[in-house]
Amino acid sequence: MSRRRQIYEGKAKILFEGPEPGTLVQYFKDDATAFNNKKKGTIVGKGVLNNRISEYLMMRLNEMGVPTHFVRRLNMREQLIKELEIIPIEVVVRNVAAGSLAQRLGLKEGTNLPRSIVEFYYKSDELNDPMVSEEHITCFGWATPQEIDEMMALGLRVNDFLSGLFLGIGIRLVDFKLEFGRHWQNEEMRILLADEISPDNCRLWDLQTNEKMDKDRFRRDLGNVAEAYQEVARRLGILPEGGPRDLKGPAVMQ
After folding, report:
1. CA gap 38, 26 in Å, rounded
2. Class in CATH terms, 6-83+225-242
3. Enclosing H/E stretch for 192
């Protein structure tokens, strides 16, 4: 493989310079982190599975009119994506009480919410991604009121689609985190869905047993993390041929 310039390295992915202007290559790592990088580990094959799962879900969302940064999958661990100006806000959509929501409000985990809730968090590992309001976002110039409305509307559309899709394969979409960015083309700007959609940033529970099929298995030391991710891919019909033995993939380029 040709040597490429690294643009950015996050906890789960690396971004490289793309083959043409306005593009990047997104590489999925096997690294696993939790609690804002306080807990670290490696889940063999996670990067390959998340690449496949995110590719599938982004393509389906593109088809239904949700604009995303995804262009195409390049290989087992890499995607070609559009280069965006990332908005430093995480948009969390919740359907069921779990995680920090259950802890903050003293709710029993697993309680269905009366309606879907949208929350905003400021992207900052140093500050542990604090929850913020629309007032904070507009006051500090992280996004305009119009951009907030757009992100909320897109987040709820994604929720409607993914809830139905996962329900059809026996999975309950508990909550998930989205990121968005500004895509500039000449003088026109459009908000696009960025990052990934995978068991790394979605809470997914088996519909019958409530067994966790996402990164909570790593966070809570439940074991069988890779197997849970494989099961999600299997139910979506996209488990790589040959299963786990094909999940090595290329090494990260420095």
Report:
1. 24
2. alpha beta
3. strand 188-193
